[in-house]
Amino acid sequence: MRTILVVNPKGGSGKTTLATNLAGYLARQNQRVMMWDLDQQKSSLSWLALRSPELPAITRLGSGREASQGDKQKNDWLVIDSAAGIQGKNLSYALKHAHKIIVPVQPSVFDMVVTRDFINRLLEGKAIQKQEAFVGIVGMRVDPRTRAASTLEQFLMQYDLPILTYLRDTMAYVNAAFNGKSIFDLPFYQSEQELVQWQPLTKWVKS
Ligand SMILES: Nc1ncnc2c1ncn2[C@@H]1O[C@H](COP(=O)(O)OP(=O)(O)OP(=O)(O)O)[C@@H](O)[C@H]1O
Ligand SMILES: [Mg+2]
């Protein structure tokens, strides 16, 4: 079982949107997917509860429980959604499980300041230094035509980390989530642009 952690201590950076859509993508690929929601607000689990049994299945890991050997054998992927403000022991605990770590960042000064401190701490971690876990960044709610987008791009260039993709700000994510769907569960005509933007991200996850 491979584990992907979506993490950024900045509230509202897009963790749940990324985690749920990634789980939705993997499930659509006939992969056996489990979600683990470390956030007290349980947004990912609420999304799962809305998900129709007719959609590709995603199972949930019960609260306060780590993946057992049985879970590991029964699933191909574990997607972990984490909480705003995560730090200290909780952060170490989440990182301990991850093979791939995705950090969503929005193009605002408030987000970039928190993310900078977080990435600096993240890169000091043993697993990352030993290359047992890999970090990638996703620019979230980015309109490439804006000054904010180029500021974000410049900010991210200081790190030797892959910028996996930029995802645009669109109601497609919001509307899909109302029904426990990912953008991969929408008709093609409603998600065409999103699918293109997700391609490099899913490629990195599977690599
Ligand atoms: N690309 C996007 N386009 C449009 N809306 C988005 C996008 N990404 C996130 N959002 C919206 O922004 C809000 C915050 O996103 P989300 O809940 O995914 O962030 P979060 O990091 O999980 O927040 P928290 O720290 O509170 O857990 C949500 O209302 C979500 O629907
Ligand atoms: Mg969240």
Task: Explain this structure.
- 46% of the residues lie in helices and 17% in strands.
- It has 207 residues and is α/β, with parallel strands linked by helices.
- It has a single domain, classed as Rossmann fold.
- It has a seven-stranded parallel sheet with strand order 3-2-4-1-5-6-7, sandwiched between helices.
- Strand 2, helix 2 and strand 3 (58-60) form a beta-alpha-beta unit.
- It is globular and about 45 Å long.
- It starts with a strand and ends with a helix.
- The mean pLDDT is 94.
- Magnesium ion binds at residues 15-16, 39, 43, 81.
Brief overview, please?
By secondary structure, the chain is α/β, with parallel strands linked by helices. The protein has helices spanning 15-28, 43-50, 69-74, 88-97, 109-124, 126-129, 147-157, 171-178, 188-206, and strands spanning 2-6, 33-37, 58-60, 77-81, 100-105, 134-140, 163-167.
Question: What order do the helices and strands follow?
Answer: EHEHEHEHEHHEHEHH
Average residue-wise pLDDT:
94
> Kindly, what is the distance between the CA atoms of the first and last residues, rounded to a whole number of angstroms?
14 Å
Name the shape in a single word: globular
CATH class: Alpha Beta
Task: Tell how many strands the DSSP assignment holds.
Answer: 7
Query: Which cofactors or ions or other ligands sit in this model?
Result: adenosine-5'-triphosphate, magnesium ion
Named CATH architecture? 3-Layer(aba) Sandwich
CATH superfamily caption: P-loop containing nucleotide triphosphate hydrolases
State the CATH topology. Answer: Rossmann fold
Radius of gyration, in angstroms, nearest whole number: 16 Å
Low-confidence stretches: none
Helix content: 40-55%
List the strand order in the largest sheet: 3-2-4-1-5-6-7
Helical region count?
A: 9
Largest sheet: 7 strands, parallel
